[in-house]
Amino acid sequence: MSRVAALLAAALFAAGVAGCGGGGAEPGAPDGATLVLDFTPNAVHSGIYAGRQQGFYRDAGVELTIREPGESTDAPKLLEAGRADFAILDIHDLGIAREHGLDLVGVMPIVQRPLASVLARADGGVRRPGELGGHTVGVTGLPSDEAVVDSEVSADGGDPAGAKRETIGFNAVASLAAGKVDAATGFWNAEAVEAERKGIPLRVFKVDEYGAPHYPELILTTTRKELESEPAMVEDMVAATRRGYNFTVSEPEQALGDLLAANPSLERGDQQAQLKVLLPELKPEPFDQAVLKEWSAWASEHELLPEPADVAKTFDLGE
């Protein structure tokens, strides 16, 4: 559920993102690569910032520039236009971008399971997703939220049509705290952690526990053109990113420090709490083709994609 790309919103790419790539560099100099994040920096990006701070990208011959997305940033179009070399994309956004004719390829999973969930107040009447019928569910307005609610309610034996959807934007915690909704879609690593730190009692229903497969949520993505014309650079980028996340798993406090050093406006306690719940899912393992096929079928069933994605073309499976 990308909160940035908004499933290929109409806006064009931000003019402030400079052109990139390693062309014209002096012999022996690192290849320049620009990476656009999926959201403002947070704990899920710790492996990237640790990789840069610890010198893993430079060791691999990559001079990495990290770009935060802006309100008008459309990361898939930045990639296709050659104004970025890599982007972190929500898996659904990757599939939808390809449906819109953008030849993008996922080259590495960042998070090994879905982050999407439905959050309900623990002191309220919703004890299971199947009980959402007749209750108000806050959604951001993204189609992926509808898929999450439908999947969870139906998998738990309820009627998705009975859940009253109310668009609240990205205000799940505030809406739940104020009692404006009985439940809301949100990320278990972000909104659920924020609510817990604010003392709001929650029941957290993770989508892969109710109907969805155990798909990787965030994907390091590039273009087919980049993959075919600069295979060594893509391989180096993947290797350095994998090394950064391995470092994060083994040295989480240092990786957190690297994230905070690069983004001093972040609050340590918040990011530390997010990283703690994320650590089991940050293992940079290869793609699982069987799981990707399950995701593709699920996304099509819930109308996120018009038909199942061609997994072999959507992801670099290393075959």
Number of helices: 13
Strand count? 10
> What is the beta-strand fraction?
15-25%
**What class would the helix/strand composition place it in?**
alpha/beta
Radius of gyration: 19 Å
Overall CATH class of the largest domain: Alpha Beta
CATH topology term of the largest domain: D-Maltodextrin-Binding Protein, domain 2
Tell me, briefly, the overall form.
globular
Q: Report the major sheet.
A: 5 strands, mixed
* CATH-derived architecture of the largest domain: 3-Layer(aba) Sandwich
Strand line-up across the major sheet: 2-1-3-10-4
Q: CA-to-CA gap between the ends?
A: 28 Å
The tally of domains stands at 2
- CATH homologous group name of the largest domain: Periplasmic binding protein-like II
Poorly predicted regions are 1-25
Q: What is the percent of helical residues? A: 25-40%
Q: Averaging pLDDT over every residue, what do you get?
A: 90
- The ordered H/E elements are EHHEHEHEEEHEHEHEEHHHHHH
SSE order and pairing:
Elements: E1 31-36, H1 46-53, H2 56-59, E2 62-67, H3 75-80, E3 86-90, H4 91-99, E4 104-109, E5 116-121, E6 136-139, H5 143-155, E7 164-167, H6 172-177, E8 183-187, H7 191-197, E9 202-206, E10 218-223, H8 224-229, H9 231-250, H10 252-262, H11 268-278, H12 289-301, H13 311-314
Parallel strand pairs: 1-2, 1-3, 6-7, 6-8
Antiparallel strand pairs: 3-10, 4-10, 5-8, 5-9
What does this structure look like?
With 319 residues, the chain is of the alpha/beta class. The protein has two domains: 31-113 and 215-314, D-Maltodextrin-Binding Protein, domain 2, CATH 3.40.190.10; 116-209, D-Maltodextrin-Binding Protein, domain 2. It is 37% helix and 17% strand. It is built from 13 helices and ten strands. It has helices at residues 46-53, 56-59, 75-80, 91-99, 143-155, 172-177, 191-197, 224-229, 231-250, 252-262, 268-278, 289-301, 311-314, and strands at 31-36, 62-67, 86-90, 104-109, 116-121, 136-139, 164-167, 183-187, 202-206, 218-223. The protein has a five-stranded mixed sheet with strand order 2-1-3-10-4. The longest helix is centred in the C-terminal third of the chain and has 20 residues, at 231-250. The protein is globular, with a radius of gyration of 19 Å. The relative contact order is 0.19. The model is unreliable at 1-25 (pLDDT under 50).
